[in-house]
From TrEMBL:
PANTHER family: CHARGED MULTIVESICULAR BODY PROTEIN, GH13992P
Pfam family, one: Snf7
The species this protein was found in: Rhypophila decipiens
Chief place of localization: other
Compartment annotation: Endosome
GO biological process: late endosome to vacuole transport via multivesicular body sorting pathway; vesicle budding from membrane
Record key words, sorted: Coiled coil, Endosome
Protein name: Vacuolar-sorting protein SNF7
GO cellular component assignments: cytoplasmic side of plasma membrane; ESCRT III complex; multivesicular body
InterPro entries named among the record's database cross-references: Snf7_fam
Family: Belongs to the SNF7 family.
Keyword Cell inner membrane: no
Coiled-coil zones: 24-80
């Protein structure tokens, strides 16, 4: 029995929900008909005006009859435009009211959802949970600090590493000088003094070294 009553209740609710939609559809259908009538009346007015202009000099009775029909069509057009304006206002009013209703229902559903989400949640429970979380974070940081404080293996002397690195770089430079007979350009730039008191510029010194390298290369090829 309750299912039967629920079916009737559901049908009434659905009908009530669709009522604004059905009203808007009916109004729009009527508005479409009036807009077509508006177009037809405007065409009739233009047609009668053309007839009156055509016969104004040759057939005054025909011109007068055309003007009379034109006036009647203009009166009908004025009424039609008024009806169109009324329907458009009604459609806008129903749409606005329906939007307001749907917005209110959405807000009510949101409120119920928030209520279910919060449940038995209270500010005190939130504070207690946050305190526990902070305690666990602090404990984790202490554990990480303790683990990092334990040094595995022997400590490495950074100055010793730097010295060894410079030694390796110098060995590479010496090896390159022995193979090519020239100093790399980058090393030349580092070792050249700054231009001052009429000393040769860096660019000129590099250019002279390149020429010497080319000369030695040419001498080696001739010797071969």
């Amino acid at each position: 029995m309750s299912g039967v009553w629920g079916w009737f209740g559901g049908g009434a609710a659905a009908k009530q929900k669709n009522s604004p939609k059905n009203a808007i559809l009916g109004l729009r259908s009527q508005l479409d008909m009036l807009q077509k009538r508006e177009k037809h009346l405007q065409n009739q007015i233009d047609e009668q005006d053309a007839i009156a202009r055509k016969n104004v000099a040759t057939n005054k009775n025909a011109a007068k009859a055309a003007l009379k029909r034109k006036k009647q069509n203009e009166h009908s057009l004025e009424q039609t435009l008024g009806q169109i304006g009324t329907l458009e206002a009604q459609i806008n009013a129903i749409e606005s009211a329906n939007i307001n209703r749907e917005t209110l229902l959405a807000m009510e559903r949101a409120g119920e959802a928030m209520k279910q989400i919060h449940g038995k949640l209270t500010p005190e429970k939130v504070d207690d949970t946050m305190q526990k979380l902070q305690d666990q974070i602090a404990l984790s940081e202490e554990i990480v600090t303790s683990m990092n404080s334990v040094q595995v293996g022997n400590a490495v002397d950074e100055d010793e590493l730097e010295d060894e690195l410079e030694q390796l770089q110098q060995e590479q430079l010496d090896e390159q000088m022995l193979k090519t007979g020239t100093v790399p350009v980058s090393d030349q730039i580092q070792r050249m003094p700054a231009v001052a008191n009429g000393e040769p510029s860096k660019g000129k010194a590099i250019e002279e070294d390149d020429e010497e390298a080319e000369l030695r290369k040419l001498q080696a090829e001739m010797a071969m």
